[in-house]
Amino acid sequence: MTTLVAGVLLLLLSVTGIVTAQRDATGDVLRLVSPEAYKFFHQSDDGRVGGSRWAVLIAGSRGYENYRHQADVCHAYQLLRKCGLKDENIVVFMYDDIAYNENNPRPGIIINSPNGSDVYHGVPKDYTGDDVTVNNFFNVILGNKAAITGGSGKVVNSGPNDHIFIFYSDHGASGVLGMPDDSYIYANDLNWVLRKKHASGTYKSLVFYIEACESGSIFDGLLDPKGLNIYATTASNATESSWATYCPGGQPSAPPEYDTCLGDLYSVAWIEDSEAHDPRTETLQQQYQNVKKRATTSHVMQYGDIVLSLDHLSVYFGENTAKYNLQPPTTAINQRDADLVHFWEKYRKAPEGSAKKAEAQKQLVEIMSHRMHIDTSVKLIGNLLFGTEIGPDVLNVVRPAGQPLVDDWKCLKEMVKTFETHCGKLAQYGMKYIRSFANICNAGIQIEHMAEASAQACVGIHADH
Ligand SMILES: *[C@@H]1O[C@H](CO)[C@@H](O)[C@H](O)[C@H]1NC(C)=O
Ligand SMILES: *[C@@H]1O[C@H](CO)[C@@H](O)[C@H](O)[C@H]1NC(C)=O
């Protein structure tokens, strides 16, 4: 036990290393189709909108260590309200376990930056707790009220002239976005929903912002064909982490009483950028460039009908706004390790010898044990399937940009299910191995072989552990 704890501490030191994001001095050249071409296709780009504006805001996590995702979503809600959207046109998904969490130093309040004001007040509780599901999320987008279970029943009841904005914040991995019940939004399903929405003729244009690790993989090679009138940006490309910010000890730091990160770098970058500019004169493309300059620890990406990015923010966010001053954060922490910061801070702050300290230590050890279990079993499965020589390489293969993660999505889902049956939930940390399971599919491995290898690798493990 002592060596494990020592290992945990060593690991913690190495993973909570804080990266200093440098501002990109070179600037970005706008690589766009000509404004003339844009005008040709969009006759009425005078910043005014014919139809209604709709928004879907969704935080995919739960737990105080993930404070920041729900904070991002609440903050986005406040922005849209301030810009003039009505509650009846904003659908919010959040687990809602933060504001009154026992760890929250300011009960009933959520902030999204060190000096930020409360962003929780007034947020509609459309889908909270167990109602935050993939099924409800998809049916809200599709406006399919009959298929909703639980929640407020609010859906995007949009018409052909309407504009839709969707913002997701949480953990992700290759081809998936996380949900609070440890299920996944698979990229192929999400793109199918978007194509279906397009086919129903119930929007004019749709903008999708995603904060998640490897979020580029949600659209790379998948948001096709172009012409769906969808423009998307993601916090990271298909193979890299996205980053948390306003963390304890960061630059600037969360207030001392907070032992969790308050925001995510891409998310606060686009929200604060919107607050700092007039939405009637700033375009989505300008916002993309501004966010890219600030969130330099990853590659902020854009996909789909890039021509739509010549739209003004007001087309999606509304027209009224107050002005703020931008305060770019300078440090960020890898999404996948930001939860450790919380548990580590809790451990560090607890008095020596107290029950609280023992409890915090137990939590840390459990988290690290789960990580080690997942690491070891995936590696072992790779070795069993492909041999120790090439196993690790096969699992880590990254396909070229523009090619989806996997050809057979059904296979991927079955591989994940098979692993989880024998080895337990991947959960937040284990999501990073989705690419390995995709590679197992791409290598033509049959489910039966995967089941055998998983059973062998995780012998003695109960899936409900
Ligand atoms: C927060 O407010 C304090 C005191 O007013 C100030 O010193 C600090 O620079 C502010 N920090 C940020 C990130 O705005
Ligand atoms: C994605 O990000 C990784 C890590 O930062 C980088 O090595 C890779 O070149 C990027 N790929 C693309 C297609 O931008």
Automatic annotation (TrEMBL):
InterPro entries attached to this UniProt entry: AE (IPR043577), Legum_prodom (IPR048501), Legumain_prodom_sf (IPR046427), Peptidase_C13 (IPR001096)
Any single GO BP term: vacuolar protein processing
Q: Which GO terms describe its cellular component?
A: vacuole
Q: Which Pfam families match?
A: Legum_prodom, Peptidase_C13
Q: Which GO terms describe its molecular function?
A: cysteine-type endopeptidase activity
Q: Which UniProt keywords apply?
A: Disulfide bond, Glycoprotein, Hydrolase, Protease, Signal, Thiol protease
Domain (Legumain prodomain) spans 362-458
Q: What does the record give as the active site? A: 171, 213 (nucleophile)
Q: Which residues form the signal peptide?
A: 1-21
Q: Which residues cross the membrane?
A: none
PANTHER family attached to this UniProt entry? HEMOGLOBINASE FAMILY MEMBER, VACUOLAR-PROCESSING ENZYME GAMMA-ISOZYME
Family assignment from sequence similarity: Belongs to the peptidase C13 family.
Indicate what this protein is called per its UniProt record. Legumain prodomain domain-containing protein
Q: Which organism is it from?
A: Gossypium raimondii (Peruvian cotton)
